[in-house]
Amino acid sequence: MKGKLILIRHQESRWNKLGFWTGLRDIILTEDGCKKAEEVGLFLKKYMSDNAISSIDNAFASMEVRSIETLALILNSCELYNVPTKHAAELNERDYGDYTGKDKWQMEKELGEDEFQKVRRGWDKVPPNGESLEMVYNRSVPYFQKEVLPLLDQGKNVLIVAHGNSLRSLLKYIENISNEDIANIEFAFNEFVVFDLGNEGKSIKKDLQMMYLA
């Protein structure tokens, strides 16, 4: 029997709060982001109990501190203190290049709505000196195939805490989302998704949980 895959986005960083494109800039969680991460952990703990998921056997985060902090706080709330954890640059957020540190909503005014949406959500739009979602996919998915799928095949339950775009790239692969439709997919702070995967890591069952955090 294959293990469960759980995907969670990191919680609010200081630049998320300000509305800045963060990308690869290493920005810590806000105080509220830390609180929310603990609440996510409690929500996940209850979900696991309600659905007879015995434990999390392995966990992954990116190399960025907001992802690492969120994962640590979640595992602590779940009272899971000895889970083997890996940090991988392949799961890092998308590099926004020259747009890093810019106010997203000011950039929307400067770029215009159509161009802004292409930059923000499109598949192959590359910001100056940055990465497209396609480029993120080309680093995150091979890592997922090499490091995560074998654990799931062994029956281990795996938690990945990463970023909006690295998680969108994994969703694209797992759910066979088209290049066009991925522009309509967002991975919110207040949700997590649990997958049962079949051959080659494709979804056979998906359970999306929305958390109404205080």
Feature tags:
214 residues, 6-stranded mixed sheet
Describe the structure.
41% of the residues lie in helices and 15% in strands. The model has no long low-confidence stretch (mean pLDDT 96). It is globular, with a radius of gyration of 17 Å. The chain has a single domain (4-210), classed as 3-Layer(aba) Sandwich (Rossmann fold). A six-stranded mixed β-sheet has the order 3-2-4-1-5-6. With 214 residues, it is an alpha/beta fold. Strand 5 and strand 6 (203-210) form a beta hairpin. It has helices spanning 14-18, 31-50, 65-77, 104-111, 113-121, 133-153, 164-175; strands at 4-9, 58-61, 85-87, 158-162, 191-197, 203-210. The chain starts with a strand and ends with a strand.
Summary of the model, kept short:
With 214 residues, the protein is α/β, with parallel strands linked by helices. The protein contains seven helices and six strands; from the N terminus they run E-H-H-E-H-E-H-H-H-E-H-E-E.
